[in-house]
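R.M. (postdoc): so does anyone remember the format we settled on? I'll just put the structure tokens first.
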């Protein structure tokens, strides 16, 4: 039996994981014209590759600013804004305590997709990148360099979503990245912090494939 004190502490931990500060998310920085959807996979256990965490990453691109964000984070934000938030959280709390009491492990549904929660706002402020993230209960916001990758474009080509794409490689933050970009989509952007190529990044992965992005959807949108 889990004590009330322990269950309260576990619930606080759970809420800290699910909920983020929405200060930037509530501001209108631009109006998106396109939304690109990427399947994202991350090897949480890089030794055994037995714990692959998956998510969907959205890239919204406007005339001046783009935003890359996780579907898991979007879902948790939507849950918080819901009028049924209190009832939903009571149900989640009950399920969390029951599963933790049986297994003494953080439930799979809570950690699955929790690998890339950072929101990346490119060209905000102009010429920079703003990143917001949460680690447990701590909220972080910082600026980074816009287009930080020094890409080497190679001759290799293939097709993704019926678009011809070309390979590029770059060393970035201690990893060797390979990206496939589409010259026919003249948007110098991509998922997460990846950008700076003469076309949209359609797929990207590091040399050990600990992190992998692959585009699965292209939409023209209005007022998002």
């Amino acid at each position: 039996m889990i004590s009330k004190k322990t269950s309260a502490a576990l619930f606080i931990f759970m809420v800290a994981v699910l909920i983020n500060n929405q200060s930037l998310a509530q501001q209108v920085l631009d109006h998106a014209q396109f939304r690109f959807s990427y399947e994202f996979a991350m090897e949480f256990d890089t030794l055994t590759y037995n714990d692959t965490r998956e998510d969907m990453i959205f890239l919204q691109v406007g005339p001046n600013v783009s935003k890359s964000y996780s579907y898991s984070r979007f879902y948790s934000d939507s849950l918080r804004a819901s009028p049924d938030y209190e009832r939903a959280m009571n149900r989640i709390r009950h399920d969390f305590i029951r599963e933790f009491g049986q297994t003494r492990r953080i439930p799979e549904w809570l950690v699955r997709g929790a690998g890339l929660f950072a929101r990346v706002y490119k060209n905000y402020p102009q010429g920079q990148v703003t990143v917001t993230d949460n680690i447990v209960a701590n909220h972080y916001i910082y600026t980074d360099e816009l287009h930080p990758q020094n890409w080497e474009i190679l001759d290799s080509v293939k097709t993704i979503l019926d678009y011809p794409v070309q390979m590029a490689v770059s060393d970035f933050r201690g990893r060797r990245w390979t990206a496939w970009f589409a010259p026919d989509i003249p948007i110098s952007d991509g998922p997460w912090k990846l950008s700076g190529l003469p076309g949209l990044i359609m797929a990207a992965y590091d040399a050990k494939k600990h992190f992998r992005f692959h585009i699965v959807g292209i939409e023209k949108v209005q007022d998002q």
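R.M.: ...and that's the designed sequence above, right after the tokens. Also worth knowing: Residues 85-103 form the longest helix (19 residues). Confidence is low (pLDDT under 50) at residues 1-22.
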